[in-house]
Records
---
Amino acid sequence: MFFDPNYIFFVMLPTLALSLFAQWRVKSAYNKWSRVPNQRGIDSVETARIIMQHVGLEHVEIDRVRGQLTDHYDPRDKSIHLSDSTVGHPSVAAMAITAHELGHAEQDKVGNAMLNLRASLVPAANLGSNLGIWVVFGGLMLNLPSLAWVGVLLFGAAVAFTLVTLPVEFDASRRAKRYLRDTGLVTAQEHKGVDAVLDAAALTYVAAAASSLLTLLYYVSLISGRSD
């Protein structure tokens, strides 16, 4: 399959180009705005506390995690994990990232439907991403189209997860921008930096969704061609 010209030109190259572009956008935006101090002179922890009080998220715990851009919200223990690259660094980028993770915390608090749907898809998505492609291959090698279609269904769960992730992440960024604006934590100029960082991060999810969707469509076309 990997030597199929259709796969190379219509799946591999487009997804590689989009992924590299998304990574470049993220690194470019982050590198620029992580070096720009915010006017308030506060890091991610202080930013989080102000937003949590404003939005009513005082129940959320704040933890620290190693690495760069490893910040995330964990719904299991209702905590945001802030990375070494944001804690202790009073930058515009640190504010944007922290506010985004609190966007997920608020989604969890209000029972956001798409967040809940994404959580429900996790087991099937993990199974589909790890097993689906092998079932497709097995069905094609054994000339069993029905088995290959089972692989497509399995992989489809992983695709569905990436697609559902898009509105979840877009909404978290929308909430983050509102928090920072309503609390007055950022100036008009700093808000441009917040937009740049969060919009660049969103592009990585778009790239992942596009990659998985194109791969799924390729499998469908491959099996349909064999069936004919």
---
Amino acid sequence: MLDASTITTARAPRQLSPDTELDVALLRDPGDRLAPGSDLLRSPAFFRLHAQTYARAWYAVVMDGSSGESLAGGWFAEIAPGEVQSGTRESFGALHSPFAPLHTALAARMILATEDELRARGVHRVRITLPPAAYEPESHAVWMNAYLRLGYGPTVPDLVFQADVGTDAMVDHMGDIPRAVVQTAARRGMAARALRPTERADAHTVISASHARHGRARIEPLEGILAMEAALPGTVHWHGVFQHDRMIAASISFSLPAAHLSGQAMGDAGDVDRHNPLALLVSHLHEWGASEGIRALDLGLASHAGEPNEHLMTLGRQLGFTPSLQYTLEKELAAEARA
């Protein structure tokens, strides 16, 4: 087994041979240089923020066994004795490699090598939540094929609404009612903007109440989000809609690689009127994202444990978004390691 001190980072993406020699290290305190190009949710920094909440958690680094070069990374947390999860229903995990697209045989070997290390630590069951299919389409196809061939079984997939951020305004893709909200917002005294640090607690309150009202999953406590913002500057973005001086809608979004903005939490005050201010908030996020070089925007999950939230499904379509599948896969590991 290679020591963590021997691991180096990839200088630039290259095509990996399907026969590349592999080694895997499961680390409890990984450094930031161990996962080149990883997105926020699969980064060592994100792992360090959350690992302490689990009895056991490891950051898996897949390396070139001959050079120590880091080829892929992702993290696993023990959610019950002998059962680990990578990613949750509210976000995603699985291994990430900057050398996409991988050869399907190499992706399978990475998975098997990681299984061996988990099995050696008494793990008998693995659950993996992949990124939404639209997030990294080519990589998703390769990893999905590899996991299924290796005996992972899918649960009912969740739904994530996504839209491209291009030259067209988001309002051009909305239904009649949300388009009217955006077009008449100024006359109604409504405006959207980035939030100030002093407004974040109010935004969290608005979003939490909205999630509870519409049957969405509870969002992370404010302290946890602020801790992530402090540890990972520039990755958390707060935006809101005001009617005169009152906050009537807000969002918390994360920056992911490949110029992707993920709306992890979003909600409205619920007592404005039938003209939902989320239409203005989404239009603002789309314009803001375009100015920041963002190419894709998602609204987060529109389902829970695979069961669609019909309110969010209707809202997503009206706002001009398209649903994408997010798979969670499970596998019971054999007692013996591979030969």
---
Amino acid sequence: MEIVSLDPTIHLDIRYATSNNFVGRPVYPEARAYLQRPAAEALVAAQRWLKGRGYGIVVFDAYRPLSVQKIFWEITPPEKRMFVADPAVGSHHNRGCAADVGLYDLKTGAEVEMPGGYDETSERSFVVYAGGTLEQRQARDLLREAMERDGYFFVYPEEWWHYDYKDWRDYPVLDVAFSAIKPPRKD
């Protein structure tokens, strides 16, 4: 399910469709974000809750084809692989059950700063990182509250932005190109 088809107020900043990512080049042909429908609906629920607090969700990544996961694994040094799932078992992203998200300010549309940058491979990415400013930590914690409050998502402890959908085991690892994903039928 394409996330913005459920709620177009969710912003997309799909870094893997640009060179602004740890690979240094685009690995997606277009800036799209897909999740399994229940996960997408849970993300929309988090978006609604955040709107009442002056924020919205920005999506950096969601479903990721297994072929892209293999690229990530191959270029990541072994000592940094805690930040990348082994393609031999697949990522929750490969199942359409993980979302990499941040916040944006509803008034300005600007992305909200967190203690560490998206896809940063350092301790600044950890959910318990005590550095950064108070405002950055509060924003990170608000994002976590929004995503975990209904029990549908849980954060990956080493990445403040990465949230796994609770039922990820119910979905297979996929290697489907974005261009091959068909929109749901309207009955």
